[in-house]
Write a structure and sequence with these properties.
Radius of gyration: 15 Å
Distance between the termini: 31 Å
Number of helices: 0
Order of helices and strands: EEEEEEEEEEEEE
Shape: globular
Largest sheet: 7 strands, mixed
Length: 169
């Protein structure tokens, strides 16, 4: 699936973006892994994965001045308190992003660069563990997004897959 970045105001919190592709958490503990291609991004695009509830967290790739960076956004939907943390530069065009949910509450993100002929084997952690809380209507949701903050052309992100798995052991 290709998600085309949609224009949003830079003051709009991730929880208030209207074009999130999300579904309810399927279990109290799980992994969700997505193989994503960021080669279609343009300056101002922010594309990635979000855990959306009362307290939310998103891990994304942001393209700024021709360079791609991992960013983590966290906040609460009832407050105007979203924080963005830049976690480092991205060198790969295709990346496996993984979200791990433990004990119905704790969310952590990791990534692995996707190389030709390889699968997602060794994930590296990105950012701190975040606490998730239920949101507006039903529980917590997880999904993908592609937004554009700024002027100029809007790009896209392509998702090869988005898979839920049980935690091992």
């Amino acid at each position: 699936i290709r998600l085309f970045a949609q224009q949003v105001d830079t003051k709009t919190q991730l929880c208030d973006v209207s074009n999130l592709l999300i579904q309810k958490w399927p279990a109290p503990e799980f992994y969700v892994t997505a193989k994503l291609d960021f080669s279609g991004m343009k300056d101002g695009d922010v594309c990635g994965m979000v855990s959306l509830g009362g307290q939310y967290a998103g891990l994304a790739v942001a393209m700024r001045d021709g360079k791609k960076y991992f960013v983590k956004r966290t906040g609460q939907w009832t407050k105007d308190d979203e924080v963005e943390q830049v976690l480092g530069q991205v060198d790969a065009e295709q990346i496996y992003l993984r979200m791990k949910v433990e004990k119905e509450t704790y969310v952590s993100f990791s990534y692995c660069a996707a190389k030709e002929g390889e699968s997602s084997e060794s994930f590296l952690p990105l950012g701190d563990i975040t606490e998730a809380t239920p949101g507006r209507w039903v529980g917590v949701k997880v999904g993908l997004f592609a937004i554009h903050e700024g002027e100029g052309d809007k790009g896209s992100m392509q998702a090869e897959y988005f898979v839920f798995q049980p935690l091992e052991g």
